[in-house]
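re: the backbone from monday

yeah here it is again, tokenized this time
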């Protein structure tokens, strides 16, 4: 492994650093974007039960706010429970924008890595080919070792850049899709809360039990 890094030239170092950062982001996002952590089921049903039993006080709302990102959004609406529907939805949307930004944390960095590592590999290819042509100009084609070194450097950096870029792009797309789905789910739960609190609909048995 060390021989490949040294043979690829100094551009292998930033490519290696990009791979480490990408791996750390992927691991962190897999841990952070679990549905059970972001959008646990049964929160709206629990709020409905609290409201029905006159147990929806500031302490309950505070515990809900610390429960999860969805709980934080719902708590923002419940803080304005005595206002009209428009104010309640506006507070939910404002908090929701902050939550979405947190869900998208590091994804831009992962997308940037997916974009720049092929360019770093291409730059390594160009540098390697420049070395090859410089060797041909100064020594002719009689020294195959020098030519092979330049060509090897060009090919190694290209392969390394693509090896980091391809999985980074795949995970970037995957996490973007997961965030979009979580946002849709949280939006549906928020709209359900507003409708239940303002008496526009009733909870069915499965929703009330958090199933």
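seq for it, each position gets an aa:
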């Amino acid at each position: 492994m060390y021989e490949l890094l040294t043979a690829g030239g100094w551009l292998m170092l930033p490519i290696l650093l990009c791979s480490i950062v990408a791996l750390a982001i992927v691991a962190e996002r897999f841990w952070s974007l679990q549905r059970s952590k972001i959008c646990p089921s049964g929160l709206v049903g629990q709020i409905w039960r609290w409201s029905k039993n006159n147990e929806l006080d500031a302490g309950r709302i505070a515990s809900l706010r610390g429960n999860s990102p969805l709980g934080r959004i719902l708590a923002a609406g419940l803080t304005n429970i005595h206002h009209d529907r428009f104010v309640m939805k506006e507070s939910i949307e404002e908090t929701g924008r902050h939550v979405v930004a947190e869900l998208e944390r590091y994804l831009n960095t992962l997308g940037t890595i997916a974009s720049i590592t092929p360019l770093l590999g291409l730059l390594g290819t160009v540098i390697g080919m420049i070395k090859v042509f410089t060797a041909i100009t100064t020594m002719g084609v009689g020294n195959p070792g020098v030519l092979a070194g330049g060509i090897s450097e060009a090919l190694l950096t290209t392969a390394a850049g693509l090896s980091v870029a391809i999985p980074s792009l795949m995970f970037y797309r995957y996490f973007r899709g997961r965030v979009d789905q979580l946002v849709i789910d949280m939006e549906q739960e928020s709209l359900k809360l507003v409708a239940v609190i303002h008496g526009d609909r009733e909870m069915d048995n499965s929703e009330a039990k958090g199933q």
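The mean pLDDT is 83. Residues 144-197 form the longest helix (54 residues).
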